[in-house]
Fold these 4 entries.
Entry 1:
Amino acid sequence: MKETSPPAGSKTARKDVSPSLLARAGTIVRRAWPLAGLLALLLALAVPAALVVVPGFIPPLPPAAAPSVPVWQQPPATLSARQGLTPLLDSAPVPLPSAVTAQLDTLLKPDGDGSFTGFVQDALTGNVLYDRGGSENRVPASNMKLFTAAAALRSLGPDHRFSTRVLAGTTANQVVLTGGGDVLLNPGGSAPDRVMGHAGLGTLAAATVAALQAQGTTGELTVLVDDSLFSGPALNPAWADGDVAAGEVAPLYPLALNSARYNPAVTTGPRPQDSAVTAAEAFAGQLKAAGAAAGLTVAAGVGRSTPAEAGTAGSAVLAEVQSATVGEQVDLMLQTSDNYLAEVLGRMAAAATGRPASNDGATAAVQAQLAELGIDTPTMRFADVSGLAIGNQVSARQLAEVVRAITDGTDQRLREALDGFPVAGLTGTLDARYEGAATSRGAGLVRAKTGTLNTVIALSGYVVDADGRLLVFSFIGNGLAPGAAGNRDAVDRAAAALAACGCR
């Protein structure tokens, strides 16, 4: 059978291709593969390089339009004018007493039993704008602290500081921690930017060790405490046992940690019953820690120096720390209504005027300073200087007059107490008040000292009224139903009404 040739172009048509041509083609192909790889490599390197270099030759795109920002979110082009209360003008209209009386008489009503007295004055002129039993004696509760503040600032001076010292004892290696009236001591280091804890026992201990090292002292130290600055009973018999047990006050000594509290942040509950020894024990612990590297040890326990030792010790002052100023302490006392601090400031005022640093000395010193201010004192009856005792008897007029002396009197030392008045709805003992609709118009405007006992509500302070007139006031409720919320609201509403007053 005759074999048929495949059509031209068929894959099987090999007879027409020269063997030498095929050989040369294979050689060309083999040589082309390395060249192709090289080209691929160059391309791979060229692409990233182009991404880096090319943008430099391309002009930037125009910026995208900024998102629309509300005007109130944009930075200011200029500073705004300073905001705040305008200066008080002597020409501001004085409220009419009849208009003030019409407002306050409808507000000062007890919630149940009891009654209110009240007194309002124009601070500049002294004109009486409201007087409901203003000269009647009443229990003022913590409004007593306004009298104590004025007396401390006048007798001690707002820049005065109390010193806590370590003195060399009467025997070798004996050190005496000596109280000088600072009851706001910090158990650790001094905190110069604070009032509570401005002076620290840790700092005092470190300075004591440095002084002992300089003297070449080694061995075991004995710590004594000298609290002889105060005299008389440490606990006022006029204070109710229940108030002492509740931690409203504690036995008084001329040195204490945290205003005689275990923790400055916990202002209720049990307190140290011997704050001098508590402070001395804390000092001994700090002294032990500081003295370890200096070859000093500290004997266990602390003792009290005897009157003889207290009189002779002190030929050498080893170390000393100083409290915050009296002005700063007065402000803290008013803001927080600190009974312990108030009583100590009263005793220190007594010592500064040559009286015994006792309760009797404190009450006498405060009354004497008020008399020098021109406040009528013969009718006053003082059982303490913090207001915790129910035996205190003063009038709303006398309280308003001391506020007037602080705000607008001639004794500039009293101005230091202005920052201590709590601000309605914002600070101190008024921080949670003036939040309701009936009193909110006084928020941020009323500045006043509060006072609360079981059947007593008091509020004394100052306010600038709607016409720019500075008014001073005092409202005192006695014989009130215990716990009745309407009584506190009554004095708050009255003060708020003065703030909004355009009473003409």
Entry 2:
Amino acid sequence: MQQSLLVALAEIVGADRVLTDAESLAHYGKDWTRMIEPAPSAIVFPGSAEEVQALVKLANEHKFAVVPSGGRTGLSGGAVASQGEVVIAFDRMNQILDFSAVDRQVVCQPGVVTEQLQQFAEDKGLFYPVDFASSGSSQLGGNVATNAGGIKVIRYGLTRDWVMGMKVVTGTGEMLTLNQGLVKNATGYDLRHLFIGSEGTLGMIVELTMGLAAAPKDPTVLVLGLESMEASMSVLQTFQDNMPITAFEFFSEKALGHVMEEKGLPRPFETATDYYALIEFENTGEAAMDAAMAVFEKCMEEGWVLDGTMSQSTSQAENLWRLREDISETISKFTPYKNDISVQVSQVPAFLKEVDEVVSAQYPDFEIIWFGHIGDGNVHLNILKPDDLDKDTFFKQCNEVSKDVFAAVKRFKGSVSAEHGVGLLKKPYLAYSRSEAEIACMKQLKQVFDPANVLNPGKIFDQDQKM
């Protein structure tokens, strides 16, 4: 990068907030993906919405691209800067600016960490319900930019459902203030929802107004050993027909085995089954517990469940959740090839069986780890790299497998990315879930908000117009 441009960046954010050393470029230029090498030209740390505006205007003036960077926990390469872009890291914009107990709303900067908002809500006797394994490091701006889901979607919905307002800087440097915390607002297009899930390609999120919920009462966890994956649908329907639940997750015996070995956690019960369901509900009193036990017993009588256990305390509930939540961290050492896919809930067992057979037939030596949010149709396919196979060969073979996996996704009318976005890694497969007409409309929207293509170019799709 030219020295004159580095000086211009420093004039906006301060000289000590522009980094060009190799270590910083490598750290801030990537996310959790490992398939694309980062190669940004500089990292900048704005401290205000106005500084973000100035940076975007400078990008237009000097014709360079910018990539937004939050907690860098993405799994699709959406925050990877691989083409000499300037990374705009939101780590400094990490303040909670305002709170209204009446509205149950909190105004945040985009760099607020998810867990930070969760703790703030808890301190106010409220609850921020969007939760996932990376909540301790992911940032709200990134969560909104990818419409993050997590473990409680079945009860509370996606991140989208909790964004009550936002401020964004478009690709031209214009500041838009959207919805302003209103519950009802029928004044034309709700542009807020265009920016949610747009992965920083339409605008930079510089402020968020997030809704909060009432705190749950005594979350209680069941872990059930399933007779088969097909049985999970009967178990889910029976629970939903008889009581409200806040989560319905699943994981395989192979996934459980890795977690027990790595984390030293005990098996939840004596019986080993191919698949497990984790169910959470609010223990609001004796009636709730009686209902849970009655459904559990019915599932046992029907043969859908072979064994199970229920938490008796908060600490036990947390330990049972670890059997599911610790999977990603545990298998990371095996360099997994990850796919985050979704189909209609009722189609999950058939879809999972078909994909499992496809992968196993082509690469019988690959270990397949399944887990996910079965209650909302989102499953995570993880293929573990054999020790004797180099990384490049492994990823090349997995990319070939992905074509068959996504062909199955298309047959089931599902999504190639349920909650991690498209980024760079899923871009070649976007047409498996989106029609040509839809993609053309998205490109037109990109042109409206970012005509010079300075914002996260090359993510989701390749824009026809170049800078």
Entry 3:
Amino acid sequence: MGLKKIIFPISSLFFAIAFLAIGYGMILTFIGVYLKDLGVNNTVIGIINAAFFLGAILSSIFSQKIISTVGHIRSFAAFAALMIISFLLHSVFFNEILWAALRLISGFSFYGLLIILESWLNEKSSEESRGKILAIYTIIFYLATALGQLFLNIDEHFKQFIFTIGSVLVLFSVLIISLTKIKEPILEPFDKFSFPKIFSIVPLATVTSFISGFVVGGFFTMLPIYILMQSDSLELVSKFMLISIIGGLISQWPVGILSDKYGRRKLISIVSFLSAFTSLFFILYAQEELYLYILGFFLGLTIFTLYPLAVARANDVVDESKDIIEISRTLLFTYGIGSFLSPLIIGVGLSLSPNFLFISFFTLCFILSIYALTQERVKDKDLSVFVNIPVASGAELPQLDPRQDENYEKEV
């Protein structure tokens, strides 16, 4: 099936994803920058940023019930309205408790919207097209998130309109979805796995997903604070984030090819070691702008591949008697826990030392690199196929993963 025949019937979903991802990338980075400009304590910034990921975790638990009850289009409008309300209230006045609550609401809404869009994509995909649809989804999400970073360069006098711009972007997605003719799918209830059970089944995948969530969550929420502490340049923050995210997109395919050839255990160890090595260079050489851009690109090359590698590892080792979809959802939940804890811990640490962020990145990634090598190697014949995954995703993404389809590996 040609790309045109795949994309055209669901183009409205991809446009909606693009508008949401631009707003997601823009606001997620801007919040910390804006709070730092107000002189807010790093610990408080970390708490406010962590609230967004707490909302994401709650959304993975509760939003599916709302969607199943009132339908996809109504739920999309409701979640989008909540997100817009939270954005606009940000611009009314600043209060630490209020902003934490607003970030929680926006996180809940955003990830609820992702669940809706992903379930729609899954509804319109077949075994033949599922992998291509997920690849297009990944590319669009990375590029749109990177594009959102350019809004940080907005003129000083228009900074207060960032939240209005974010609201307009969400409204565009609502307009597109309101006119869609795509059939609403039926959401099946999510089965829950306990963490001890998941760890006993896929220990390396569980640890990798948690550390990946910690590093990526810290990247979006607290790394801009680190850069401002070094240079006090918003333009530098914008370009750094853009370059890093583009690096993350570029690395998906070569890392996938290498992991299919040499195995996930080895690639997780190599990628996490390179992440640790890059973090160490940030501590030593991040004072100059050129070095920041180069290191940012290499950081993006590595940290954004850890979670896809974790999911691939789970697919490698789980036998047919286990429900890989629910295991993948639990790995995503583990990733969310790491993202939630990251700004809390780094926020406190940055108050002690500007280098705490990369000290924590170095420590966790180095430990993961060593831990991966202690795990059992999977035989080549048992390897699944690496699949690229968006930088942020909802609880329906595992359902869209083409590895769940029968004979997918043989066809690839």
Entry 4:
Amino acid sequence: MTSTHLTTPPVPEENDQMANRVMRKVAIRLIPFLGLAYFLNYIDRTNISFAKLTMSEDLGLTETMYGLASGLFFVGYILLEVPSNLALHKFGARRWIARILVSWGLIAALMAFVPNATWLNIARVALGIAEAGFFPGIMLYLTFWFPRAVRVRLVGVFMVALPLSSALGAPISAAIIQYWHGLFGLEGWRVMFLVEGIPTVLLGFAAWFYLTDRPRQAKWLTNEERTWLDRRMTAEHAETADVGHASARSSLRNPTVWLLGLTYFGIGYGLFAISFFLPTIVAGFAEQFDTTFSIAQNGLIVAVPFLIASAAMILWTRRSDRVKERMWHVIAPVALATVSVPIAMYMNTPFLTMVVISITAVGIFSALPVFWYLPTTFLTGAGAAAGIALVNTIGASAGLLAPYMTGWLLDATGSSKAGLWVVGAFMAMAVALLLVLRTRLVQVEEQRTTT
């Protein structure tokens, strides 16, 4: 390994056959289920962006009030991320993930009955409290099952649920609002909240019986496979502990963890701004380009950048695992998004605008799975639980700022341009921090591989 790359060691050749067989079994068992949970997670978090198209008039929301309601989700989410992940480490993933799914699904469904803006804000805070710890919990859980050499690729397969939730969720949500309006005597946006919240509750009950906490408890593996995987992961965690941070206290005090969190804030600002306001941007084409789309057509248009990003994410993470390089596989796509995002609003047709927004989405989503490999290079045990949660907490705070700031700028200027320039500035900050982190993490990796 050279000092110019953050790399991962290959799986030893003598274990290739066993490794391939076990990884295939574990991936087939866990990734689709967790991916479905993440798919529902992001739909329930962001479907308010489509509800807004008719909900704002029903509840009397301005752009700023909508931005506030969107961002309030992250208040409880931020406060409880670290405690929730430590609870998962203590009580086990099966119980804790099931609890999270059931509680957030119930609240997501009950949002169908909010009578005014105040109750909408309360429901969004409650939804954030219920969801707290889900994503960092899954990131921690995957470190129990997948060795470093294959982790980025498989995390990429899991995280493809993120853009897919928008690619598929956008037209589904829009169609429910437009065509199921009046079902149960409810407005279309209320029906959408109700219908999309119920599957999460059902999946939560299934998680209690389906998930397995650790490899040594996996009855769906043979004795030989369980032993091999348990030993492999135990050795890998011990290796990380030798050079890293195994306690929650040391992890929370580690400057590299905070730098990673600030980097994720910059990336997350772009993610949340696009996720919560892209339907509004497309609706704005009516005034900008004298082009009108129905709610259902809006959903189909919004789906395109996320669908393209889904394919790019899979290809990029496979490349990262194939060449066993990480840092530039985060820096390059974030830089691409940084350059492209402010340009979008200066295109002179809806088609060109969506092309540039698609490039931005490719950059953001391609960076995410590789980024989440970085904390696991020096965190393990309770330190990983606390550190991963802290990184996600700092990043998630962008979800509080981005929707509110974007909505306020939209109200203040009457245009999306200012908001997207702010997105570009925060993502440029992420690129700068990644260049700083590159040196720190390469040193950690070199120390780990020589001990």
